[in-house]
Amino acid sequence: MATTRYSDVRARDTDRADVCGLLDAALADGQLTADEHAARTAQAMRAKSFGELEALIDDLQIPDGLANAPVVRVDRRRPRRWLAPVSVVVAALVAGAMVGGISRCGVDLPGFGEDVPDLTTGAGLAYFLAEYRAEFGDMNADEVTFYPKYAVVDRQKPGSASETGDYHYNGDFRTSGTSQRERGARSFDLAAIDVPAIAGLLAGAPRTVRCPDGVITLVIVQFDTHGPYDRGAVVEIHVTGKDGSSGYLTTTFAGEPLAVFPPTR
To answer: Of 94, 110, 120, nearest to 194 (Cα)?
Structure first.
């Protein structure tokens, strides 16, 4: 009987999630840049074997608390470098919340295909940005609206300053039409988003807007046209509670909160 090699063992959702946790820790302690984290997270979500997952963490130091993950534990042929316990890494994350927003790649959420995490989480944001760059070759957009299972994108149509291309994303980008682009419309650079900072805000948003039992139902990335000041492009995070009440917060791309609007009772 043929012996299956370690590298050929098929990966489970939990194995992909474990690797995402390792990537989160590596981002938190400075081993990976935000772009590297986003790219590796996207690859982890598509990985089919232990070998593919191992390649994503082969050059990383592993926190003690994650050393027993199967994708780490199975291969004992090479020495591993262990970092401090994972609790130390968690303490370094934004308000201790980033792990909740990024780790596990969203694969443990019901109702999703294994390839696309919840797009209103840090993992979903990182995954989407990597997919966006791969699709369009740049990070320009006029507006992006994230729902848990899909995203809607408006971006200037190539070669036409007066037309907007409308796209729907739920694992693939599909054109949903073309619309008139407003005079003076501007594009922002999605690459300017500080993914770890926004991930922390996403994880803590229900508490921030005083709706602790709520869930994020909508995230909008757009230019802030309200009020007398031009605050540039912002991220709006909308939360809905079990009782139907809703609130939202607005933040810069750098994760600096601008305003919080709790539910009106």
So the answer is: 94
Report d(CA 40, CA 34) in Å as an integer.
10
What are the φ/ψ torsions at residue 189 (nearest 5 degrees)? -105, 110
Rg (CA), the chain: 20
pTM above 0.85, yes or no: no
Which segments of the chain does DSSP mark as H helices, in order?
A: 13-28, 34-46, 50-57, 70-73, 86-91, 98-102, 122-136, 195-208
Both tokens of 206, joined, read 């229900």
Query: In angstroms, how far is CA 39 from the centroid of its own chain?
Result: 11
Those residues with Cβ within 8 angstroms of residue 121's Cβ, 6 or more apart along the chain or in another chain: 101, 102, 106, 199, 202, 203, 216
Do residues 170 and 149 make contact, with C-beta atoms less than 8 angstroms apart? yes
Taking the chain (265 residues) in runs of 10, the rounded mean pLDDT of each run is 63 74 80 85 82 87 60 46 40 38 41 68 90 92 93 90 90 86 89 91 91 92 74 91 89 92 80
Q: How far apart are CA 18 and CA 11, in angstroms?
A: 11
Q: Is 44 helix (H, G, I), strand (E, B) or coil?
A: helix
